[in-house]
Structure to design on (93 residues):
């Protein structure tokens, strides 16, 4: 006799499994993006206090661009995952 898995178990529901994967990737991308943003701000103030040369400006610009590229989709996908989880709870799934 085999036991059936509950519908809310992410190990047996491919949609929930994929949503959990996306949630993990969003968490990693968000943390990395915010760390790069903090690096850009920190490097800007270090460069402002010292000699603002082209190397410092390049580091600030690259960190800002990388942070934006990571954070934009991570924020949107994070809201999508939260909305899907909320809808599942409201429907009792």
């Amino acid at each position: 006799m085999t036991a059936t898995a509950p519908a809310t178990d992410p190990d047996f529901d491919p949609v929930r499994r994929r949503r959990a994967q996306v949630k993990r990737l969003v968490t990693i991308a968000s943390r990395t993006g915010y760390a790069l943003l903090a690096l850009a701000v920190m490097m800007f103030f270090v460069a402002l206090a010292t000699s603002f040369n082209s190397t410092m400006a390049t580091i600030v610009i690259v960190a800002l661009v990388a942070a934006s590229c990571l954070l934009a989709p991570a924020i949107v996908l994070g809201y999508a995952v939260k909305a899907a989880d909320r809808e599942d709870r409201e429907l009792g799934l």
User: Anything to note?
Assistant: The helical segments are 14-49, 54-91.
